[in-house]
Design brief:
Strands 1, 2, 3, 4, 5, 6, 7 and 8 form an 8-stranded mixed β-sheet that branches. α9 packs antiparallel against α10. β4, α6 and β5 form a beta-alpha-beta unit. The protein has a domain of 182 residues: Vaccinia Virus protein VP39 (Rossmann fold, 3-Layer(aba) Sandwich), CATH 3.40.50. The chain contains 10 helices and 8 strands. By secondary structure, it is of the alpha/beta class. The longest helix has 18 residues. The site of S-adenosylmethionine has 20 residues, from α1, α3 and α5.
Length: 263
């Protein structure tokens, strides 16, 4: 699955606002005064996590950014001075172990865990546990959406969307919104102390472009499921986009962040 740089750029301000500040502070405290530290960011995209987290970590922390999209990685490679950054173009499904090989003092990701399969998640947790490496994962979709004002079709459309989220995104059948509960549960079972905090997207009339892109993406995904009658879905789409244009729609999209430390 590919992610356009335009989409990642559009969502970045909402992501940045949404990130749970308490968890960022706890990650920062865990590494304060430690030098040098090596961070590995999985599915780095255009560098959203390095931009959000690097200012809270020791100034000379070195980052390895891993993604299978070379064009996104080249955008990400401008986020830090070159001597502190290594970009690795790798398929994380095939080469996860290579991506997080030492040195790695902290593994991070954002907007990734809902795309992966349960077996890949277990592989990741196995590697983190074997190496005793802390893990910060931001912006995992939890399956909840709230549109205001509401519409009777919102709920069935979200259910269809969440079903679509389980389709293979390159790692096998995706966890989709189940990731939000399953990831902390599996990390705890593997002996990690896990803190979870909310990081919901709140999108109002100031970001119509993001709201339109999000709603259009949802409608396209829901149409593929065949679960909503096309005329109903079309009418919902029109009414929602009209409401965005009139500055009358707000959206909340549920996400969680987590910070897990080996005991
Ligand atoms: C939703 S984007 C998130 C990007 C970035 N972390 C952010 O928060 O903006 C998911 C990222 O995972 C990457 N990705 C998806 N499948 C991958 C795979 N099999 N191997 C490596 N990266 C992958 C995509 O290229 C994309 O950059």
């Amino acid at each position: 699955m590919t992610f356009s740089s335009d989409w990642l750029k559009l969502r970045e301000p909402a992501d940045l606002r949404a990130r749970n500040r308490i968890l960022v502070a706890h990650v920062a405290a865990a590494f304060a005064g430690k030098v040098p530290i090596n961070v590995v960011d999985l599915g780095a995209g255009a560098g959203a996590t390095v931009k959000a987290l690097a200012p809270h970590l020791p100034e000379d922390a070195r980052w390895r950014l891993v993604d299978n999209d070379a064009a996104l990685l080249s955008l990400a490679s401008w986020t830090l001075p070159q001597e502190r950054l290594e970009a690795r173009c790798l398929d994380l499904d095939r080469a996860l172990e290579q991506a997080i090989e030492a040195p790695a003092d902290l593994v991070t990701c954002s907007a990734l865990l809902d795309l992966v399969s349960e077996s890949w998640l277990e592989r990741l947790i196995g590697e983190l546990g074997a190496r005793g490496v802390p893990f910060y994962a931001a912006l995992t979709y939890d399956g909840s959406t709230t549109l205001t004002p509401g519409d009777p079709l919102d709920e069935p459309i979200t259910e269809a969307l969440n079903q679509h989220q389980h389709r293979d995104k390159g790692f096998g059948p995706a966890l989709g919104p189940d990731a939000a509960l399953l990831v902390p549960e599996k990390l705890k079972a593997a002996g990690f102390s896990v803190e979870v905090g909310r990081s919901d997207w709140l999108i109002d009339d100031k970001e119509p472009e993001l709201a339109n892109a999000l709603l259009t993406g949802w409608v396209d995904a829901v149409a593929e499921t065949g679960l909503i009658a096309p005329p109903d879905l079309g009418a919902w789409r029109k009414a929602r986009l009209d409401a965005v244009a009139a500055g009358e729609l707000t959206l909340r999209v549920g996400h969680i962040d987590l910070f897990a430390r080996p005991n």
